[in-house]
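The authors assume throughout that readers already know how a fold can be written as discrete tokens. For illustration, here is how one protein appears when written out as sequence plus structure tokens:
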Amino acid sequence: MVRRQFKELDIQSFLIIYKGFVRPDLEYATQAWSPYLRKDIDCLEMVQTSATKMVKGFCKLPYELRLKG
């Protein structure tokens, strides 16, 4: 949904959207907060990878650096 509304986000906008919409859903869903199966872990990693690529200036960085930044 965020990708449809925004082509590119700066860091502040991404943090606001993430903390307001994404994180509460992840904290509420136990399977997403503490995944057990490898397929669940991979699915969450794919979502996080694509979300961090939307941040302006982060799309060309490796995934590990995007997580730290």
Notes: The first helix runs from residue 2 to 5. Helices lie at 2-5, 11-28, 30-33, 38-53, 63-68. The radius of gyration is 12 Å.
